[in-house]
Specification:
Length: 514
């Protein structure tokens, strides 16, 4: 064969393998609002930056007539490319080829790009659209998933791992994402479950739709399995690009700084925060009015909304923000919000992202539901995560900081480097009402007018403890600051901590309250 014929032959082969499961199958996907796998990669990466690997890989399965089936690229497109010029490793499963199901060859294509990502220190993006382990390949497909889970775990904390769910994903196709850092879902397209409706019908005799079982809303509002929700695939890709712009490529680097921009939102603390301490406000108004360009990328916005977590920039540098949200359950810590905050804190710590904590909470949520759901175990996660973190930790107490909530929200006692309080801060074991009822119980009961006595005692307690000055007198906070100076104070604290080094006792690893 001449060189020219060989090149033509190569293009013909490549063309054939690049068509996935064929026009009919692709049209079916497109009719469901889904992009074909290669189009997804193209939409996400910088133009012409994708280089494919392992297009010619073939599976070795002969059972169930598998040797007679053509599975182009074995149902997964793999390779590398760039986003804003940053390198990324990527795979996209192709549902038009055997439902994107994962056999051993398919798995080895994925583990190859995973290994590459770790070696080169670049993020891994996995676009999942798969019915899980390929049933015909039996234990070989389970082995494939095992090899992926193992690498997900070893890569955790070394490179960012981003999972995108763009189809009905079952079994291993959701367990691998569950081991990664950020999971993106799209309305009507994404479904996540361990076992699909067919299996549920067979085993339990129950009929349930894929959407109710694990649709995008379920996963972002009820389970917290997914971190970002989009209305369309294109919106989802924009969200991923935005996330990539905030985080470093690997744990040896810092996030790329941007030139600083002042906040766009006007900071009028007297308008944002009600004068009555029991009235709510939106902590995101505070965040947006202190961060660069008022640009705040919130994570898990729809789940455990009593705590707000996300990335922002201060003076061009990425910071991780954790804030109580007085708008939802008065910003209490409970089972889910503790999980959410603890995981985010560990992400920031692993990837050299300083933590800014904004405090306004009445404490941990009391009650039998929370106790039985394990608020002790889950609540301990946030204590563990803050204590373990060695990145710069800066805390601002805005209003309430009561009881365990005061300690948990990155207090000095858990190793905060800088703790500031606004003059509106109330730092105490509990709120004035509850405290007065307990410590002045007999005086209130013995009074001629118990109600008047209660009011007097509440006021007495408030004057003594519901302020930042007792904590300041004891050195538990470093400074009471003018709220209007918050941004400048944070920027100063970040500058001072730019070269922070803090070590921990050497050990294999700790045992967090998982
Ligand atoms: C082989 C599969 C497959 C699988 C789907 N297909 N899942 N082939 N192994 N796991 C194939 C179908 O046979 C079909 O092929 C094509 O993909 C499209 O599937 P449909 O069922 O027609 O699509 P849809 O109605 O959209 O339903 C999608 C689905 C369903 C919900 C994903 O296919 C399903 O329930 N699949 C099985 C899911 C599951 O239980 N997986 C768990 C595997 S265990 P044709 O040729 O007809 O086009 C696992 C273990 C991991 O993953 C370990 C975890 C710890």
């Amino acid at each position: 064969m001449s060189i020219k014929s060989k090149i033509i032959d190569f293009f013909t082969k490549k063309e054939k393998l690049s068509t996935g499961g064929g026009d009919k199958a692709i049209q079916k996907q497109v009719a469901m609002g889904k992009l074909p796998a290669r189009e997804r990669i193209k939409s996400l990466l910088d133009p012409d930056s994708f280089q494919e690997t392992d297009l010619f890989v073939e599976h070795k399965c002969k059972d169930f007539d598998m040797d007679k089936k053509q599975l182009p690229a074995d149902g997964v497109i793999t390779g590398s490319g760039t986003i804003f010029g940053y390198p990324v490793s990527i795979f996209a499963q192709d549902f038009t080829v055997a439902g994107g199901s994962l056999g051993l060859a398919h798995a080895r294509k994925i583990t190859k790009v995973m290994d590459h990502a770790v070696k080169m220190g670049m993020p891994l993006i996995g676009i999942n659209d798969s019915g899980g382990a390929r049933i015909q390949e039996g234990v070989n497909s389970l082995a494939g998933y095992g090899e992926i889970f193992y690498r997900n775990t070893l890569a955790s904390g070394i490179i960012p791992q981003i999972s995108v769910i763009l189809g009905p994903c079952a079994g291993g196709a959701v367990y691998s994402p569950a081991l990664t850092d950020f999971v993106f879902v799209v309305d009507k397209i994404s479904k996540m479950f361990i076992t699909g409706p067919e299996v549920i019908k067979t085993v339990l005799g129950e009929e349930i739709s894929m959407e109710d079982l694990g649709g995008a809303k379920v996963q972002t509002e009820i389970t917290g399995n997914a971190h970002f929700y989009a209305e369309s695939e294109q919106e989802c890709f924009q969200q991923i690009k935005r996330l990539i712009s905030f985080i470093p490529w690997n744990n040896r680097r810092k996030a790329q700084p941007l030139s600083t921009k002042p906040p766009r939102a006007h900071f009028d603390v007297e308008k944002i925060i009600p004068s009555e301490a029991t009235k709510p406000y939106d902590i995101r108004d505070i965040i947006r009015s202190i961060c660069d360009d008022s640009d705040f990328l919130e994570i898990q916005e729809r789940w455990a909304a009593n705590v707000v977590v996300g990335f922002a920039r201060l003076n061009g540098e990425t910071v991780g923000i954790v804030g109580n949200q007085p708008l939802v359950l008065a910003g209490v810590l409970d089972v889910d919000s503790s999980d959410k905050a603890a995981r985010f804190i560990r992400y920031c710590d692993a990837f050299n992202i300083p933590l800014v904590t904004l405090v306004d909470l009445p404490g941990y949520l009391p009650g039998i539901d929370q106790e039985h759901a394990g608020v002790i175990r889950h609540g301990a996660k946030i204590l563990y995560a803050y204590s373990e973190a060695t990145v710069p930790k800066i805390t601002v107490i805005l209003r309430k900081a009561y009881g365990g909530g005061y300690i948990a929200m990155c207090s000095r006692h858990l190793g905060a480097d800088f703790v500031y309080a606004w003059p509106t801060a109330e730092i105490a074991v509990m709120g004035p009402q509850g405290a007065a009822n307990i410590i002045f119980k007999s005086e209130i009961a013995a009074a001629k007018d118990p109600e008047a006595m209660r009011k007097l005692k509440v006021q007495e307690y408030s004057e003594k403890f519901a302020n930042p000055y007792v904590a300041a007198a004891n050195g538990h906070i470093d400074a009471v600051i003018n709220p209007y100076e918050t941004r400048n104070t944070l920027i100063h604290a970040l500058k001072i901590s730019a070269n922070k080094i803090e070590t921990r006792p050497t050990k294999k690893h700790g045992i967090p309250p998982f």
